[in-house]
Automatic annotation (TrEMBL):
Keyword Oxidoreductase: yes
Species per Swiss-Prot/TrEMBL record: Mesorhizobium alhagi CCNWXJ12-2
InterPro entries cross-referenced by the UniProt entry: Anthracycline_SecMetBiosynth, Glyas_Bleomycin-R_OHBP_Dase, Glyas_Fos-R_dOase_dom, VOC_core
Record domain VOC: where: 9-124
GO MF annotation: an example: dioxygenase activity
Protein name in UniProt: Glyoxalase/bleomycin resistance protein/dioxygenase
Keywords, ordered alphabetically: Dioxygenase, Oxidoreductase
Length: 124
């Protein structure tokens, strides 16, 4: 049996929210990119900005988040300095739950959005 080795380990992400406009505003402010509202499907979606169709991206959707800090964590790219993005998290109703962590690939910090979804800020 041959192992499947994909080009990208993750290809799409979805983040549940109880308040679409609040979540779009929060992530738009933190990431400094407005999330467009797509209402073409059965549910409205807040679309994250990606460079092109080959980029990994995702959306917000109306749903029930996991208990605060217990769900999966998606790391989202932000412009340096990461400390400025961390300030935008708290200023917009989220919570920073770790200090900046340095690894060979870059710097990141764990956070919670206003719904309690776990996410990371990442700067290469």
């Amino acid at each position: 049996m041959n192992a499947h080795v994909p080009a990208h380990a993750a290809v799409w992400f979805e983040i549940p929210t109880t308040d679409m406009e609040r979540a779009r505003s929060f992530y738009g402010a933190v990431l400094q990119n407005e999330l467009s509202l797509n209402e073409d499907g059965p549910n409205p979606m807040g679309m994250f900005v990606a460079r092109d169709q080959d980029s990994v991206a995702g959306h917000l959707y109306p749903g029930k988040p996991a208990v605060a800090g217990t769900g999966p964590t998606i790391h989202l790219s932000v412009a340096a300095p990461i400390e400025a993005a961390m300030e935008r998290v708290t200023k917009n109703g989220g919570q920073v739950v770790s200090p900046v962590i340095e690894i060979p690939a870059g710097r990141f910090a764990y956070c919670l959005d206003p719904d309690g979804n776990s996410f990371g800020l990442f700067v290469q």
